[in-house]
Specification:
The protein has helices at 2-6, 9-12, 39-43, 47-51, 76-86, 114-121, 131-134, 141-151, 158-163, 182-188, 190-203, 213-221, 229-253, 259-276, 286-290; strands at 16-19, 99-104, 107-108. By secondary structure, the chain is mostly helical. The chain folds into two domains: 7-121, no CATH class; 131-290, no CATH class. It has a three-stranded antiparallel β-sheet with strand order 1-2-3. The protein binds zinc ion.
């Protein structure tokens, strides 16, 4: 265990900084005590010789009462070091002992912080422009998760299962008219389209204003007076979740529920969401827009 931890020293190095007190316990060349990082890295292996400070010297031993006892600088890096040293008070025996703290992005954490540290060392991908449509404030977690999988087109549709070699009929179980792929299931399918019609009529549309998944994503981030973005996002996520659940219900339990009943279910989910989040600014005026 400790061997594994020691292997991570190079990761931890940049987070541990010394706050100089009397300078006795901080190593001049190895410890991280200036904004320039460990000085051995800054000036290289020739640093101790060119600055005439022994490699194991403490910060306290690199100065006397008059000032720092370094040799004149001959490189840009050494000039930077001299400039920095001239800007800080000299350590003195009357000062308190040196202290070490865990710093993340230049800020002391008052001890080790797992959350802040993980946040800066974890692998990061570039931000996705659709992320705010999936993980928005006020979303229903199970709807958002299902939406995330659907947007990545990773739901185990019958067409996908068949492509993995499973002996399943890939035809959409809701309409029996087309192969079950994501865009069909949530947009084209006659069963789903009749739910969309009820939703769109409620929002004042004569026709369903999108014909594929990217069109649906574009529509859901638009805003209008009668259909604010947050209402669109709630509706899209509730529909995708409800249709997927009904599709599973039909395949596994052979339970057929008409679109009108599912619309009532979505309606109830939207009302519950708006009621529960009424204290949030963007949810304040949604109820009259949805129940008009
Ligand atoms: Zn269908």
């Amino acid at each position: 265990m400790w061997k594994s931890l020691l292997k991570l020293r190079h990761l931890a190095e940049r987070f541990i900084k010394s706050k100089i007190g009397n300078g006795a316990n901080t190593r001049f060349w190895y410890d991280n005590w200036t904004p320039l990082g460990p000085l051995l890295k800054l000036l290289g292996d020739s640093g101790p010789r060119s600055q005439r400070i022994p490699v194991n010297a403490s910060v306290a031993s690199a100065c006397n009462n008059q000032g720092w006892i370094l040799a004149p600088p001959r490189t840009d890096a050494a000039v930077s070091l001299h400039m920095y040293l001239s800007s800080i008070p000299l350590p003195s025996v009357s000062d308190s002992e040196d202290g070490f703290d865990w710093y993340v992005e230049g800020k002391p954490c008052g001890g080790f912080s797992t959350q802040m540290t993980w946040d800066v060392v974890r692998p990061r991908d570039s931000p996705k422009d659709w992320a705010s449509q999936v993980w928005f404030k006020g979303s229903t977690p199970r709807h958002a998760f299902n939406m995330w999988i659907a947007h990545l087109d990773r739901l185990p549709t019958l067409t996908r299962l068949a492509s993995w070699g499973l002996h399943v009929n890939p035809t959409c179980s809701l309409c029996s008219a087309s192969p079950e792929i994501r865009d069909h299931l949530f947009i084209d399918c006659a069963f789903t389209a009749s739910i969309w019609d009820l939703i769109c009529n409620r929002l004042g549309y004569l026709h369903q204003p999108f014909s594929n998944w990217s069109g649906l994503m574009r529509w859901s981030k638009h805003r209008s007076e009668t259909a604010p973005k947050v209402l669109r996002l709630l509706l899209v996520q509730a529909l995708v979740y409800t249709v997927w659940r009904q599709r599973n219900n039909l395949i596994h339990n052979l339970q057929r529920i008409p679109p009108q009943t599912l619309f009532k279910d979505i309606n109830r989910q939207i009302i519950n969401s708006i009621t529960a989040r009424g204290h949030m600014k963007r949810f304040k005026n949604l109820m009259p827009l949805w129940l008009r």
